[in-house]
Amino acid sequence: MIGRICNIQGHDYLIVEHQDNIVFLSTAEDLDFFKRKFKVDYLELDMQACEEVVEQLNEYLSGERTCFDFRYQLIGTSFQCQVWEGLQSIPYGSTISYEALSDMLFTTRKTRAVARAVSQNPLLLCVPCHRVIGKNGALTGFRGGLTLKQTLLKLEKDID
What we know:
Layout: E1 2-8, E2 11-18, E3 21-27, H1 31-38, E4 44-45, H2 51-61, H3 78-87, E5 96-97, H4 98-105, H5 111-119, E6 132-133, H6 146-158
Parallel strand pairs: 1-4, 5-6
Antiparallel strand pairs: 1-2, 2-3
Helix pairs in contact: 3-4, 4-5
């Protein structure tokens, strides 16, 4: 696995690629989460890696792009992957509650399990877990921090 840390619009992001697919995209503070999730002790850093992803992230965070088209691979349990694929159906500029996401994906409500899977999303931003909010409309947990979540939601609302 090869990774890169890059600063885009004041935030440091960690991007990791494996076998020509992005497998992890998050804030740089998530390095320990990455190591636990992928059971690695060491990550080779290459500041030239993942250039296409850096470019697309910059475009997204500048309001010039509404979706990503780089190659990525979801790595998790079948349940997690089902939830993460469900996240991708939330339209740009929209939000959904954890409960509504659970109801959309499953015949029986699994809100807590869905929330846990959302929290384990290895591909922040391109698998838009920031679009999931509390049932009462409140911003709830986001590994990138609530300030970044608020920034992303505002960006998506202001640029349609």
